[in-house]
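Open question from group meeting: does this chain pack into something compact, or does most of it stay loose? Before anyone orders reagents, we agreed to write out a predicted structure and look at it together. Recording both the input and the output here so the notebook holds the full record.
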Amino acid sequence: MEIFVNATEIERQKSIAESLRSRFAAEGAEKRVFARTYGCQQNEADTEKMLGLAALCGYKKVETPEAADLIIVNTCAIREHAEKRTFSCTGAYKKLKEQNPSLIILFCGCMAQERGVAEKIKRSYPYIDAVVGTDSNHRLPQIINDVLCTRKRSYHVNDLPHAEFGVIAEDIPSLRASGYKAWVSVMYGCNNYCTYCIVPYVRGRERSRRYEDVVAEVGGLVEKGYKDITLLGQNVNSYSGGVSFAKLLEKCASFGGEYRLRFMTSHPKDASAELMDVMAAYPNICSHFHLPVQSGSDRVLADMNRRYTRESYLQKVAYLREKIPGVTLTSDIICGFPGETEADFEQTLSLIRQVRFDMLYTFIYSPRPGTSAAMRADQIPYEEKLRRFEQLSQTQLQITIEQNERHVGKTLRVLSEGEGAARTEGGTLVSLDSTPPAGIFADAVITAAHPANLEGKLI
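Structure tokens returned:
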């Protein structure tokens, strides 16, 4: 299967975009686009590319849907709550369409690729003009042009088996949300098939960008003055674009100037000593590792198809902390996975007490149709999942406070976000006593620690 969209097709889309821009200019029409993004950083990066293509077509970005002629809804399918929020928000656009019949509404992203969603939109959301699956984003100019010319609804959802779809489109402009922080996708899709996760079914199998293309993009961002660059993938450790991920990271850290380089997300089974060695060798690679463990019970980890054990996870944490003293370590935990016993949950609690994560992203298990875990008969009652979630959150809260307190009295290098806020290289929010412009590095003495942030005084 050819995963790279050929250059001729990309140029064709750009040509359509230029025709649309010329048409709007001739009509004297100022076109505006609004985008709402749900979900992960990969979705944020995808939205920036769709906004880049919309800008080529002549659309100017606006901050409210009421002001828009084009609305892009980029969706997330990872949890049921996200889906409900998406449909609720999208339902509110019906009134906007009634007020402005020429408004174009596009439903994009992971939900668009889910089985049955396109049919649901066809049946219940007639005011949505197009449903755009995860590997059709690069066709945005063609999709917009077709809607304008025909006023017919269209569906651009790949119905191939999930192991056979998914493409990479290079040379697509990004309209980035920030002038100093940037997302750079290095790969798409996932091969892991964790039993709770829908990602492989809606984003396809793993496919990596070419090593040279990633390095060129990062180099261009550094040259433009970007200060915080994140390499993205569902599992960056299995990157296969010509070199290992560790080698890719090393090359991306080798440009001159002060900037931060970080990455997410890592699967523990593939997090290598080579990667940790590279992190230790380059000061501009953030000493922050997000390493999702999901559970502290070997039995639950096996049921989740995670393919590592508690002990192997702890060994990697020990090596990481040996190589990078003071590293910020964050993780994900799922509460109430099917069949999780109280003993399993206690093992998770003991793991977080042993590891002492700086922060946890804790989730209540949400069944995803199409995944094997959703079909299990031993689902945990919601009330019990919530109890475990609250107990885990309280346990981690105390650890986070103690981890943050270790910074008090120290001088940390921070990157300003403006309005008195900054971030450490570990991603911790610092409230400053004064406000440097966003995108400026500064040194701050940490004066106080709280659960969600630190306080600091600029030097």
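Observations to bring back to the group:
Residues 411-458 form a domain with the OB fold (Dihydrolipoamide Acetyltransferase, E2P) fold (CATH 2.40.50).
The chain is about 40% helix and 20% strand.
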